[in-house]
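Troubleshooting log. The previous structure file for this entry was overwritten by mistake, so regenerating from the original sequence record. Sequence copied from the archived sheet and checked twice against the printout by T.R.
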Amino acid sequence: MTTSSRYAVALHVLVALAHLGGEGATSERLAGSVNTNPVVVRRILGLLAGAGIVEGKGGRGGGYRLAREPRRIQLDAVLKAVEPAGIFPVHENLENKACKVSCQIKEVLGGVFARAENSLHERLRETTVADLLRRVETSR
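Regenerated output below.
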């Protein structure tokens, strides 16, 4: 079991694109900023494009740019785009019918996780890509 960094990489890419303005960038250039493989960035850009957050085309001569102003991209929309199943998944293991915990835990955790995700989305909705860019640009 590993923790996904898709969301953090997606935000990094979006802030980099916002920093570039309308210029846009290739997945290779963005991957250089993130210090990761361009394939990782292309997968994330595909998810973001599917959600209408970025636009562009891959391949030779291609490039990506924000599909809307950074102040109109809320962080919860980015999370939904790159982690559509949520960030607190309940395990997929079959239940052990002889164990009460095994038979009930998915339902119990599902409710707890749903409330946590709702709270998280409410907080993320308060921040935009423009807010992150402003923090990056004003830091040392």
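The first strand starts at residue 54 and ends at 57. Archived copy saved in two places this time.
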